[in-house]
Amino acid sequence: MPPALRPAAPARAAALLLLGATTGCSLLAAPATGIPGQPAPVPPKQVVLTAAQALDDSGTARIDVVQEGPAGRRTASGTLTWGARDEAALTVTDELGAGRLTVRDGAVDLAYQDGRAKHADRATAESLDPAAGAAGGWAGGWTTALITNPGSRAYAVAQAGTLGSLGGEDVAGTTAAHYRGSTPVAEYFGAEGELGPDRLAAVLDWYQRHGVKTIDWDLWVGPGSRLLRLRETVTGDTGTTVTTTEVSGAASSDPTAAATG
């Protein structure tokens, strides 16, 4: 995902405000066909874009992330802040052990409990990944995802891919709408135009070398247009890697938005 944490651009914000203004029914009421006399179902893309904007507007969130794949299991948990402040503080566990990942004003630091430390900035954050090797470069997106507003990732998914509704599910005691879709790699990373040509080429080359053409996504949106969970599934030559991000602590745009029609 593009490495910047930033508020929505004016055009994006205006578009999402328009989407929100036309949403008068339950986010869970999104069947393929409408019911005569009832509000029109909300398209999945609209639901996800509205949730992405709500999270972006909140300026902060707690995330709990688990990644499982051929390389093993990784975890991370902590808080992200974006907009007026660019900060993050997360505990992480990866192949090198337990550590602390922090961001402050664009500087990214990863310090392990045994004293080893790595330093980068947003443009080179992937070099902190144990899989990056000495040459650095894109390493699959683990570090970038940890320091990126999840709403920005959800926005790119909605813009670049196709989404379908799987109905309502329980997420931590809350009924959430579950959406599933996929995005071609090139369209996903080019959705917001934030990666320069060289950077984009390097990212696309990594996925091509690993036999990945599309990325599969699951998103859960709860009452108040809250993005509750984001799951990325990448399948390539070496197997399947699943990264699940639980989102909490973000402000709700309207506590009754998903409860009324």
UniProtKB/TrEMBL annotation:
This protein's UniProt keywords: Signal
Skewed-composition ranges (Low complexity): 239-253
N-terminal signal peptide: 1-29
Region (Disordered): 239-261
Superkingdom, taxonomy of origin: Bacteria
Protein name, entry field: Lipoprotein
Lineage: Bacteria, Bacillati, Actinomycetota, Actinomycetes, Kitasatosporales
